[in-house]
Amino acid sequence: MTLTLNIFVAFLIALGLSIGLFLVSGRHEARAAGALESAEAALATVRDPSERGKADAAARGWESSLVPVLRVLSMRNGAVESSLLRATAIRLSLSRRLLPVALFSAILGVVAGFLHRDRARDLVLYSSVTFSYLGKVLALSAVAFGAFVALSPFAPPLWSLYPAIGAAAVGTATYVGNLPPKL
Question: pTM for this structure?
Answer without folding.
Answer: 0.73
